[in-house]
């Protein structure tokens, strides 16, 4: 086992530790972790990315884009909606989904930008 990436002491800067621990108390980390858990699924990432590009798509078009059934797309979209990542509206027989707000769009865009940078570093580094 490589131990080069583990500290040899138990605490280096207790002021920083206390400051961060105090801030963590005020945050709802469980809800934030649920957001990332929802986006840890490849199909849901594809759906969220699609919605970041087109802003609004009906469930049947989402199904065609990601290559799944309408029922599966609907299930994933409902989960994104229940976690506050997406919103929907019904128009006749069609149900349209969009990302909840600009923060969600930015989260998706930043994740894809970061991944492209990681790939470039891997090829050049």
List keywords for this structure.
single chain, 125 residues, mainly alpha, Arc Repressor Mutant, subunit A, 3-stranded antiparallel β-sheet
Topology at a glance:
Layout: H1 14-25, H2 29-38, H3 42-54, E1 57-58, H4 59-66, H5 70-82, E2 86-91, E3 94-99, H6 102-124
Antiparallel strand pairs: 1-3, 2-3
Structural class: mainly alpha
**Net shape:** elongated
Number of domains: 1
Average residue pLDDT: 91
- CATH architecture level-2 label: Orthogonal Bundle
Q: How many angstroms does the end-to-end distance come to?
A: 25 Å
Number of helices: 6
Content of β-strand = 5-15%
Low-confidence stretches: none
CATH fold-level name: Arc Repressor Mutant, subunit A
Instruction: Give a count of the beta strands, DSSP E runs of length 2 or more.
Output: 3
User: What is the radius of gyration computed over CA atoms, rounded to a whole number of angstroms?
Assistant: 19 Å
Helix content: 55-70%
Can you tell me the CATH superfamily? Winged helix-like DNA-binding domain superfamily/Winged helix DNA-binding domain
Q: Write the element-wise H/E pattern from the N-terminal end onward.
A: HHHEHHEEH
Which CATH top level class fits? Mainly Alpha
Output the strand order for the largest sheet: 1-3-2
> What's the story with the biggest beta sheet?
3 strands, antiparallel
Describe the structure.
With 125 residues, this protein is mainly alpha-helical. Helices cover 63% and strands 11% of the residues. It has a single domain (30-124), classed as Orthogonal Bundle (Arc Repressor Mutant, subunit A). It has helices at 14-25, 29-38, 42-54, 59-66, 70-82, 102-124, and strands at 57-58, 86-91, 94-99. The protein has a three-stranded antiparallel beta sheet. The protein contains six helices and three strands, in the order H-H-H-E-H-H-E-E-H. Helix 3 (42-54) crosses helix 6 (102-124) and helix 4 (59-66) packs across helix 5.
